[in-house]
Write a structure and sequence with these properties.
Elements lengths: L4 E6 L6 H8 L7 E7 L5 H5 L2 E4 L6 H15 L3 E3 L4 H5 L2 H6 L3 E2 L4 H8 L1 H10 L8 E3 L2 H13 L4 E5 L9 E4 L15 E3 H10 L6 E5 L2 E11 L5 E10 L2 E5 L2 H13 L4 E10 L2 E8 L16 H9 L18 E7 L13 H10 L3 E10 L3
Helix pairs in contact: 1-11, 8-9
Length: 376
């Protein structure tokens, strides 16, 4: 009988409960145990894991590496999927390999390039991948100049942090004065230029933003699985236009994604996002980690998390072609259990007891579930 595989996910997104489900339902019928850690005791990933720990707060990147090495050694981790402090962790890949843990993460060079969006845009444009026009701004005057240049070209300006993920800090500039119109309905991404300029002039320190034109839909996120040999094993685009989601194998999206994944050492799972600038697809962002929506590829008959674990274990799954493309769908929310109070260790001896406690818990965490698919 083949040995059980022990996988650790650290401080990951709630949606990765589905990543964990796919590991357990792998086509190799291999037994998988999942360890999860998080700073939030109510994270659904802790309840979904076989064992769980609360992460200590306030650790420096170097301190977190020591914590991670200890977790891997004590828990017998075979494959570690790091999100928090990914850059610091991959710099110590040899230390993890020495204790028998494979990192499901890219090279240190890749994380360095894609931590900063300006560096990333410069790098990918140098290999022929189109990027939108952009300016790096740190002051109010630089912001105004960048916005005016874009508006003169007929574009709507937006800005986002040069470092960040998940759309945090993204705003669209508007010249319309603040009014009751902006207080109706739900808050949106639009922010008045004069308010931003005033905030910048009153700030104690400069910002670090990229200003660029508001790019058009569709947004296409290409999920890539790349081996340590820099060869892509899987590339599938997930399309997004309003609420409608779908899949694509169109080379206008996949070809530039492969160039980036193979050329910059984006080993294992990465997510490369594009939008339209006029009639041309351009790079939006690069995530050096599994996307929260990666599990949606199961609608195409693909188990990407397990294929990535196989690669990390040295078991090459070969080139993976989706047997079909799933129908268009929409994402809806669904409940997921959380632990009754604080993370409890789900050892085999008390597995039944803990499962009963979780089932009885009245608290639920809400995640985006592609398992709840709405045909359109």
């Amino acid at each position: 009988m083949r040995s059980r595989v022990r996988v650790w996910l650290n401080r990951t997104y709630a949606e990765n409960v589905f990543f964990m489900d796919q590991l357990r339902r792998n086509p190799s019928d291999r037994a998988v145990d999942i360890h999860a850690t998080h700073g939030d005791a109510d994270s659904p990933v802790l309840a979904a894991a076989d064992t769980a720990d609360l992460e200590p707060e306030g650790l420096s990147p170097a301190g977190y590496v020591e914590y991670a090495l200890d977790q891997c050694q004590r828990r017998g981790i075979d494959v570690f999927v790091p999100r928090l402090h990914q850059s610091a962790i991959v710099a110590h890949r040899a230390d993890f390999e020495a204790i028998g843990t494979a990192l499901l993460a890219p090279t240190p060079q890749a994380t360095a390039v894609f931590e900063d969006k300006a560096t990333a845009y410069e790098a990918v444009s140098s290999v022929g991948v189109p990027v939108p026009p952009w300016s790096r701004v740190r002051t109010a005057d630089e912001l105004v100049a960048a916005v005016e240049e874009l508006e003169a070209g007929g574009h709507k300006a937006c800005f986002k942090p040069a470092a960040g993920a998940g759309g945090v800090g993204f705003r669209v500039i508007t010249r319309a004065p603040f009014s009751l119109f902006h207080l109706n309905g739900f808050p949106g991404p639009y922010v008045q230029l004069d308010m931003v300029v005033d905030a910048l002039r009153r700030a104690d320190e400069p910002v670090d933003w990229l200003v660029m034109p508001r790019l058009e839909e569709p947004e296409v996120s290409v999920d890539c699985l790349t081996g340590p040999d820099n060869r892509v094993r899987l590339a599938v685009g997930r399309t997004k236009k309003g609420r409608r989601r779908g899949f694509t194998l169109d080379e206008q999206w996949l070809k530039p994604a492969r160039i980036i994944a193979e050329g910059f050492g984006l080993h294992y799972l990465s997510n490369i996002q594009f939008r339209m600038y006029g009639d041309q697809p351009v790079l939006l962002d690069v995530n050096t980690r599994p996307a929260g929506g990666l599990h949606q590829l199961s609608l195409c008959g693909v188990n990407a998390p397990w294929a990535a674990v196989q690669l990390a274990l040295g078991e090459d799954p070969g080139v993976i072609e989706p047997p079909f493309l799933g129908q268009d769908y929409a994402v809806v929310s669904g409940p997921k259990p959380v632990l009754p109070s604080v993370p409890v260790q789900r050892e085999e001896a008390d597995e039944v007891v803990l499962q009963a406690a979780v089932a009885a818990s009245v608290a639920v965490g809400t995640v985006e579930a592609a398992a709840e698919v709405l045909p359109l």
